[in-house]
Amino acid sequence: MSALHPVIVGFMPLLDSALLVVAKEKGFAAAEAIDLVLVRERSWANIRDRLAAGHFQAAHMLAPMPIACNLGLTPFSSRTIVPMALGLGGNAVTVSASLWRDMAAHGAGDDLDAGRNGRALAAVTAARSIAGKARLRFAVVHPHSAHHYELRYWLAASGVKPDHDIEIVILRPDAMAEALRSDEVDGYCVGEPWNSVAVASGAGRMATVKAAIWQSSPEKVLGADARWADEEPDVLAALVRAIYLAAAWCGLPANRPELAAILARPDYVGVPAALMLQALSGAIDVGGGATVQVSDFFIPFARGATFPWKSHALWFYSQMVRWGQVRHAEPNAAIARDTYRPDLYRRVLRPMGAALPGASAKVEGALGVATPVGASGAGLTLGPDGFFDGAQFDPDRLDAYIDAQMPTGRR
Length: 411
What we know:
By secondary structure, the protein is an alpha/beta fold. It has helices at 18-25, 28-31, 44-52, 65-70, 97-105, 114-130, 146-158, 176-181, 194-201, 210-213, 226-231, 233-250, 256-263, 273-281, 310-322, 330-339, 342-349, 398-405; strands at 5-11, 34-40, 58-62, 80-85, 88-89, 91-96, 136-140, 166-170, 187-191, 204-209, 220-225, 283-287, 290-293, 298-299, 356-357, 371-373, 375-376, 380-382. Strands 2-1-3-11-4 form a 5-stranded mixed beta sheet, with helices on both faces. Strands 8-7-9-6-10 form a 5-stranded mixed beta sheet, with helices on both faces. The chain is globular, with a radius of gyration of 20 Å. It starts with a strand and ends in a 6-residue tail after the last helix.
């Protein structure tokens, strides 16, 4: 490529758009001869539809969304591949001030402990049922989102029945805090900075975070139109290299203040840099004057944060089956597995000496501590990657995992 090649990429105003924003703003895309055009969108459905319509060549996407597109679960979609993830962690569960008071009366604490605070929420929902009060209403950003599946996983493992004990509705990320303030919802799961916005306004308290529910798990990925990827493999490779280098830049603590300032611009996330910096540093203001240090709240580069693990894809698929979005069948599992493309990731980044895992899937929940693993290129340390309830997900035992989680009536 001798001239800059235009690539149009859609994104949502969220913390984890950072890798795309930095690829453009710090010149990593231009160095790869890409004219990276970032288009800010208002909803995840718009992102999906405009990728399918060919308006975008690639997009900042919810990690399960490309799988749903390829499974035909969306009304308007195209074949989509995931050549890389866009970091690990990054979301939280925030509840209204009044719900937090009720949870605190049942033992909830400021430490973001998913188990303890989940049990407190279960006690509140049980008490409301006995008293004949309306179900609590929580919001997520899309039916095919990590937020949706992780919220349901947390609720179910805590003794709360989604859809029976709690209603779950869909809202745009930037509408969440106002919905909480106006009592339209009692809580939500969303990416940063939209939890911190509610806390800063006094409308909400953070109950737990993604890193406490499922450590070292992806929130967003780079989704690419498969037709475009087939036609322009060199451009896709250049884009992956640029974002990988941007991730490395984002991962340096010294760059956090500058990154927060860039993301705070109105054309990107458009909230004060101080709120962005909380999530980048892991010093999380949970509300009520309490700050909790969550070192792995958002990981843009370390721990193989941009590697597209097939085990992540299959766990999201298992939750689609669990909650009745798709029927489990080997062809469907294969579609989910093949949506994530570690082969492309390795092919593009191996010449750069990037740290590349030797495997494409792992047992999620098996690493209790950060663990050096075999890798080509630079050294690589993974995990911890546990679920808060101590469960493990072995992608080689997918059938048994799905069967164990399915409601009795649907087995």
